[in-house]
Write a structure and sequence with these properties.
It is built from five helices and seven strands, in the order βαββααββαβαβ. The strands form three sheets. It has a three-stranded mixed β-sheet. Strands 3-5 form a two-stranded parallel ribbon. It has a two-stranded parallel sheet with strand order 4-7. It is elongated, with a radius of gyration of 17 Å. By secondary structure, the protein is of the alpha/beta class. The longest helix is centred in the last third of the chain and has 12 residues. The relative contact order is 0.27. Helices cover 39% and strands 21% of the residues. The protein has a single domain, classed as Rossmann fold (3-Layer(aba) Sandwich). InterPro entries: NmrA-type_oxidoreductase.
Length: 110
Amino acid sequence: MAKITSSGWPGCRRNRASGLAWAVGRGAIYIEPDIDALDDCRAAGEIANSAGDGRSGYTTRGELALAYARLPARSELDGETVELLDKPITQSQLAERLNDVFGTRLTCRD
């Protein structure tokens, strides 16, 4: 988990001012909807969206739930905002990974 040392989010500012022990996790994009849409993408032969060269961090709901559940037990994260995601990837990289895992031949179109 990567720590974010400064955050302007109002909730984070309120947490800091509260005097309570806290940690905030910032989640990634759930991968499950992309997997659920795989049959439609397979029929079209592509992943079509407007992401361009933008990068997104993906995770599963289960991974995110486990990370959130563990935050309170990690005293070294008290007062921190933590990114709960893997290395962000492009949609083309996502298509490559889906192809590898599911044996598809998807391309990516912006």
